[in-house]
Fold these 4 entries.
Entry 1:
Amino acid sequence: MKTPAIPAAGPLRAAAPAVEIVEPTLMPGRQPLLRHRCLQHSWWHRGSLVTPLVTGADSLGEFALLDVSLQRGCELPPHTHRCEDETYVVLEGRLRFYVDNDVLPAGPGDTMHLPRHRRHWFRLESDYARVLLHVAPAGLEHFYRALSEPAQALIVPPLPPAEPDPAPLAAVAARFGLCFD
């Protein structure tokens, strides 16, 4: 018996792509984590209250999740991240995000994703706002900590009496891949 010929790949029959099977890698040390918003782990940063809920040490560097309470006047100037993406989930208050040439208002329940290499900043539209800030990969939490002091209470602290010297801010920012305009 003669073996039938297999038609060559053509416009009607494309060759199947090779499939690479990759064995999944299990990350050692991954454990469930429940962290409460507490004074012991909170910082005051330029008139805001920052509480890390998940750090890079907890997620093996994959991401960090920060609970951030803000007041009008504590916002950072326009900047660009070289290393991480940021995602804000607005829990309370209203913010106006500026991304490149776009102006995007956000309120409770809204999510704003900011990919790295995109110039952005935000302004509070309300006197107070609270957001969850997801950063991937992790590391940006160390930027906030380097410029903060331990929180004395779980409240938004007073604003600094004067604008901080931009030189130390720029020096710390450069260590973490942030570029301020």
Note: Residues 6-26 have pLDDT under 50 and may be disordered.
Entry 2:
Amino acid sequence: MQIASKSQVKGCWLLLVTVVSMLLGNLASAKSPDEASLRAAVVLGILRFTEWQPPIDSSKPITICFLGDVQSKDKLVQASSRVTVKGHAVDTKNVISLPQTDVCSVLIIGDEWSGQYPTGVGSQLTVCDSCRFGNQTAINLVKRNQRIGFEINMPYVQANNISFSSSLLELASRINR
């Protein structure tokens, strides 16, 4: 098996972001995608390189839940009816408290959430999208130099039985160990 070079991985990532942006309808116009669309594209890209333990039942969707004011929410809701991730449909759900997150494969936490952050939630990917406590989630979306990137909190990832492909790890802005 041949290992992809870093430039090939970045090229694949750029292609993935472009395709997802097209699905979100922003490249149909002549203007650049807005920040919310880019954040949504990054989240969907991350899901393609994520493994849950135990694996999500193949007959069930990947459920993305939103807690707080999530910047990418509207774009993810729009895209959810048109995309699949690893053969799974994508479903979305608003939640207002942590006990409601049991059905979530992915929990995206936004600004305005002042409650307790999830710990020991089992096999659930947590993403900080403009939240104040990115170090308490597996993924923290960050904006630097007008680009959306992401940081990975490995202790949190490992504690929640999630793994990422090496290709995704290479694309992270920072990996906290």
Note: The chain has a mean pLDDT of 83.
Entry 3:
Amino acid sequence: MTEGEARALAIQETDYCYVLARAWEDQEKHGICLERIYTKGRCEEIRMAWWKNGQFQTRPADIDVVNWVRLFENAVSEGVFTADERLGMLQALVR
């Protein structure tokens, strides 16, 4: 993907990146989310982010196992992972 393609597909743009897809653990902009981002001038990445009261937090995001599974399911549904990435994860799980 090029930066121009990422810009066209972005659901949000920040100074650092274009957010291409996002899935929330629970409430939007309050809690933990998984994002597919394109960092400006670099590449696509998967980022786990923590939001509190509508503000992005720069501290580590901790999540319990039950909520991790729900967040992961939401991320799959919201297109955070590509088909090839989902297949790779599935193959890793069945090894």
Note: Residues 65-77 form the longest helix (13 residues).
Entry 4:
Amino acid sequence: MGAPDRPEPERPERPEPGRREREPYGPDWHGPGSHGPYPHEQPRGSEPLNARSPLLLRAILSGIALVVSVAAAIVFAVAARGDGSAAAAGICAAVAVVAAIDLVVIARRART
């Protein structure tokens, strides 16, 4: 008295949650700039042995910032008339302190 035995319709298999059905560019693709099975290109030449550090450029820029900001702080402090020059002198002094701290950090890193 029941319904005749009918085969159930085939349902397509669903991928696991969090997984795509297929890889968009193939299984060896690791993103833009990938070349083969490694996600990033391997260094060439003697790069690890002779790596160049940006500390010299950073020290030069910090030294320039220190000199310019101290000079500007002095100029603004001397010319302070209550029209915001004192605030400008304070900002320049703060930039000088940051540049001086950066020079100390650079000197410590250059020694190690």
Note: The first helix runs from residue 55 to 78.
